[in-house]
Automatic annotation (TrEMBL):
InterPro entries: ClpP/crotonase-like_dom_sf, Ech1-like, Enoyl-CoA_hydra/iso, Enoyl-CoA_hydra_C. One of its GO terms (cellular component) is peroxisome. Pathway: Lipid metabolism; fatty acid beta-oxidation. It comes from the Eukaryota. Keywords: Acetylation, Fatty acid metabolism, Isomerase, Lipid metabolism, Peroxisome. GO terms for biological process: fatty acid metabolic process. This is Delta(3,5)-Delta(2,4)-dienoyl-CoA isomerase, mitochondrial. It comes from Albula goreensis. It catalyses: (3E,5Z)-octadienoyl-CoA = (2E,4E)-octadienoyl-CoA; (3E,5Z,8Z,11Z,14Z)-eicosapentaenoyl-CoA = (2E,4E,8Z,11Z,14Z)-eicosapentaenoyl-CoA. One of its GO terms (molecular function) is delta(3,5)-delta(2,4)-dienoyl-CoA isomerase activity. The keyword Lipid metabolism applies. PANTHER family: DELTA(3,5)-DELTA(2,4)-DIENOYL-COA ISOMERASE, MITOCHONDRIAL, ENOYL-COA HYDRATASE. Belongs to the enoyl-CoA hydratase/isomerase family.
Length: 309
């Protein structure tokens, strides 16, 4: 049966290959990468995909196109066997100014429907759609490194808390801005930030007052793992880190991301059980033999040719 499915899959690959190609052929030129209008996607190194928020003149504010383009982009990346790790950053002066306040009126402030029930039903669907924009980052099996410079406001915090590794520049600041615009943050910050930062009290303070948190505090509370002097140094650091991840077995790396996220949301016994089930097949990969042999021979994982995943 498995062989039959595999041969059907191979026959029909061309049917869905175009979506792969859309990512693989993306340019590295100055502007957004078609078909996207808010994202620039490039491949700065082997197995590394760089997704840049690209509306610099509007401080990368998240307009309607952005909310759906992120879903398309990360859905393609998740299936792209050439990609082993993703770096996300922002073009221009800052990382992002959060939701596009001019665009927000259309979707969020004018719910469609003939009565309260129908308007509420539609509003729920809109919020769930917006949530998916960042949940796709978490669902993507490839690790996502985010590099923040300057401001990271509102939706920006929702975005970065869905990423696996956060870096920033010395001039970076973070703001859970939602209460200032009259809403409870609803696309991930209130759910993920408490799992990222150890102190519940600090999360509550940030979310209830919308005060800015600067890079030093972001580092000391664990929101980011490294602070760089400027954007150039940070991007070099992000690419170096991505290169380290990309050099390792994709079976090991993706299994690690998936199990870390599982253990975040489950008890230790449940997560150990999930892990055992995961590795009962994944330990049978040729990558274990190749990696163990390389370790015995004192070779770096970078010298091991792993198959695509
Ligand atoms: C279902 C709901 C889902 C998600 C909800 C998310 C909630 C949030 O994201 S709340 C956060 C909303 N964002 C803000 O309140 C930030 C507003 N912007 C600023 O405070 C500042 O722009 C800045 C980020 C501090 C940057 O300042 P500066 O570098 O001085 O740039 P500006 O001159 O202010 O702006 C340049 C240009 O960009 C436009 N712009 C900036 N932010 C936004 C935005 N959030 N929405 C739309 N447009 C924005 C600004 O209007 C300027 O445009 P011009 O055409 O040049 O005038």
């Amino acid at each position: 049966m498995a062989a039959l499915l595999r041969s059907m899959f191979m026959k029909n690959r061309s049917l869905w290959q175009p979506s792969f190609c859309a990512v693989r052929a993306m340019s590295t030129s100055g502007g957004p990468t078609p078909p996207f209008s808010t994202l620039s996607v490039s491949h700065p190194a082997s197995a590394v995909t760089h997704v840049e928020l690209h509306r610099p003149e509007k401080r990368n504010a998240m307009n309607r196109a952005f909310w759906s383009e992120m879903v398309d982009c990360f859905s393609q990346i998740a299936l792209d066997s050439e990609c082993r790790v993703v770096v996300v950053s922002g073009a221009g002066k800052i990382f992002t100014a959060g939701i596009d306040l001019m665009d927000m009126a259309g979707d969020v402030l004018q719910p469609q429907g003939d009565d309260v029930a129908r308007m509420s039903w539609n509003m729920r669907r809109v919020i769930a759609k917006y949530q998916e924009t960042f949940s796709v980052i978490e669902k993507c099996p490839k690790p996502v490194v985010v590099a923040v410079h300057g401001a990271c406001v509102g939706g920006g915090v929702d975005l970065i808390t869905a990423c696996d590794i956060r870096l920033c520049t010395q001039d970076a600041w973070f703001q859970v801005k939602e209460v200032d615009i009259g809403l409870a943050a609803d696309v991930g910050t209130l759910q993920r930030l408490p799992k990222v930062i150890g102190s519940r009290s600090l999360v509550n303070e940030l979310a209830l007052t919308a005060r800015k948190m600067y890079s030093d505090e972001a580092k000391s509370c664990g929101l980011v793992s490294r602070v760089f002097s400027d954007k150039e140094a940070m991007m070099a650091g992000a690419l170096e880190l991505a290169g380290e991840i990309a050099a390792r077995s994709p079976v090991a790396v993706q299994g690690t991301k998936i199990n870390l996220l599982y253990s975040r949301d489950h008890s230790v016994p449940e997560a150990l059980d999930y892990m055992a089930t995961w590795n009962m097949s994944m330990l049978q990969t040729q990558d274990v033999v190749k990696s163990a042999q390389a370790a015995m021979e004192k070779k770096s994982p970078k010298e091991v040719p792993f198959s695509k995943l």
